[in-house]
């Protein structure tokens, strides 16, 4: 029997609205005929540098339904970039302290954080013990409850790849499982069923960039969820050649360190109520240096 969060998963992220062509009519909760429909009229801003080796962009579409997308792109060739997957409560334990993505960014002093793996139970408060469904690898500390999900792995020298289940994580230093791959060597591996908010990670064909993406959902008139096949097409549009679907639904959250040092949520989690982050088990954190001359 799948955990309750599996039924709610598949996250998207929020994006700034732009003026649409008058010829395009926005529809509500409409199905796409094919995956590419979700990006056929997509509007995506240029990548904007926010930290050394880190950029962000926003995307949206009105067809076949409203979607808001947020993305962060990490240059894996930048030597000052580092990663952290949320550590367990203690090495040797099988539990994680429940935290929102913003709480992880603040506690571990990351510059970027994205929600991660699926988990077993919903937390009532910060610090409640939670359990990861799949694998979680935090700077060499490896945990695995099942090996049926695909995973993102990152080595000590910042090489990132999507590993297919059953996963061999021996070359990884940080990593976490999601559900299944969205893109496999450029091929769409998603389905058109079950639209939800989505969180995903992707890697460019040349291996240089790691892309973190959210697609917001369950918010009529703002952003109305995506299938995994549609999420795959958004990942492709953002430059990914391989990509992985992470836990989504109410878990979807992408956060950066704001100008004053406090967490800034890029997307709009579906809550309830909208805007409220869910506490989850693990996350992917990114460390990056501030831009020259920037004071925080």
Mean pLDDT: 90
User: Roughly how much helix do the residues carry, as a percent range?
Assistant: under 10%
Topology pattern, helix = H, strand = E:
HHEEEEEEHEEEEEEEEEEEHEEEE
> Total number of β-strand segments?
21
Essential attributes:
296 residues; nine-stranded antiparallel β-sheet; five-stranded antiparallel β-sheet; 21 strands; globular
What does this structure look like?
- This protein is mainly beta.
- The protein has four helices and 21 strands.
- Strands 1, 2, 3, 4, 14, 15, 16, 17 and 18 form a nine-stranded antiparallel β-sheet that branches. Strands 5-21-7-19-20 form a five-stranded antiparallel β-sheet, covered by helices on one side.
- The N and C termini lie far apart (47 Å).
- The model is unreliable at 1-26 (pLDDT under 50).
Give the arrangement of secondary structure elements.
Layout: H1 4-8, H2 37-40, E1 43-44, E2 48-51, E3 54-61, E4 67-75, E5 82-85, E6 96-97, H3 101-108, E7 112-115, E8 129-130, E9 135-138, E10 141-144, E11 151-154, E12 160-163, E13 174-177, E14 181-184, E15 187-188, E16 198-203, E17 209-215, H4 228-237, E18 242-245, E19 254-257, E20 263-265, E21 283-287
Antiparallel strand pairs: 1-3, 2-3, 3-4, 4-17, 5-21, 6-8, 7-19, 7-21, 9-10, 9-13, 11-12, 11-13, 14-15, 14-18, 16-17, 16-18, 19-20
């Amino acid at each position: 029997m799948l955990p309750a969060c599996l039924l709610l998963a598949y996250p998207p992220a929020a994006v700034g609205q732009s003026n649409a062509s008058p010829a395009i009519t926005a529809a509500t909760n409409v199905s796409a005929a094919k995956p590419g429909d979700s990006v056929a009229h997509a509007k995506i801003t240029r990548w904007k540098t926010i930290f050394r080796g880190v950029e962000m962009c926003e995307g949206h579409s009105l067809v076949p339904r409203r979607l808001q997308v947020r993305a962060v792109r990490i240059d894996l060739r930048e030597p000052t970039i580092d990663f952290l997957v949320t550590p367990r409560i203690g090495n040797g334990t099988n539990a994680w302290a429940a935290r929102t993505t913003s709480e992880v960014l603040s506690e571990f002093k990351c510059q970027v954080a994205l929600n991660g793996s699926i988990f077993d139970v919903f937390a009532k408060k910060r610090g409640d013990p939670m359990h990861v469904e799949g694998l979680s690898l935090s700077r060499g500390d490896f945990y695995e409850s099942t090996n049926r999900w695909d995973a993102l792995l990152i080595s000590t020298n910042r090489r990132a790849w999507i590993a297919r289940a059953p996963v061999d994580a021996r070359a990884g230093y940080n990593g976490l499982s999601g559900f299944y791959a969205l893109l496999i060597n450029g091929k769409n591996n998603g389905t058109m069923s079950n639209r939800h908010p989505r969180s995903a990670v992707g890697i460019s064909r040349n291996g240089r960039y790691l892309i973190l993406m959210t697609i917001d959902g369950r918010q009529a008139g703002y952003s109305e969820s995506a299938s995994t096949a549609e999420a795959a097409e958004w990942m492709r549009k953002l430059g990914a050649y391989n990509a992985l679907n992470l836990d989504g639904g109410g878990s979807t959250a992408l956060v950066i360190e704001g100008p004053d040092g406090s967490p800034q949520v890029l997307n709009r989690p579906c809550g309830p109520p909208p805007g409220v982050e869910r506490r989850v088990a693990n996350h992917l954190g990114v460390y990056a240096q501030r831009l020259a001359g920037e004071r925080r």
